[in-house]
Amino acid sequence: MLDVVIDVSHYNGQHLDFAAAAGAAVAAVIHKTTQGTKYVDPMLGVNRPAIISAGLLFGAYHFGDGSDGGDQARFFLDTVQPLPGQLVGLDFESNPAGSSMTIEEARAFVTEIHDSIGKWPVLYSGHDLKGALGGTADSVLSNCPLWLAQYGPSAVLPPGWSSWSLWQYTDGQIGNPSPVTGIGHCDRDRFVGNAVADLRAFWASVSP
User: Fold this and answer.
1) Tens digit of pLDDT for each residue in 161-181?
2) For the chain, how many structural domains are there in total?
3) CA dist 46 to 6, 13, 17, 49, Å?
4) By residue range, what is the domain housing residue 85?
5) 104-136 tens-digit pLDDT
6) Residue 61 is part of a domain; what is its CATH number?
7) pTM score, two decimals?
């Protein structure tokens, strides 16, 4: 597996050096882009071109809330306008600032993405997804490659998946990993494949 993917948002600050990260073997960055039906991450406009200019794979994720899932998906796509080779994903987790996305709205979101781009998005989640599924696989969500959020030495899969594609194994603090050059301490993600070419192929499989 490869440990060459990070994910960031405005919480990581305003002065990220993606060229330095690329020089330190980071290969891909997934950026928070939208939340709900109105919010856009304020660092998206600065960081997206910097990520691409640094030669890194760019990915975009949407943080789901309790509003209509189809509306959220359309807002996400209208805002991001992802290009071929740019990963798209849904972050399904509890919302500390308001209503949380339900399983039903997550289904609506990923279905709208699939109908729009012909691909299933990556689904990011961990304990929230396991709790919502209640031990039963979901026939819609299980189409999505899993981006597992689980800090610690081992990955425990939710029902419906036989493997993970990406695994967020630390928030940059748990496990005491070294800071990422140019970025600092941040979320870090393993990729199930063994080569950057495999990572690029995976990125293409979850993009327009």
Assistant:
1) 999 999 999 999 999 899 999
2) 1
3) 17, 11, 11, 6
4) 2-205
5) 999 999 999 999 999 999 999 999 999 999 999
6) 3.20.20.80
7) 0.97
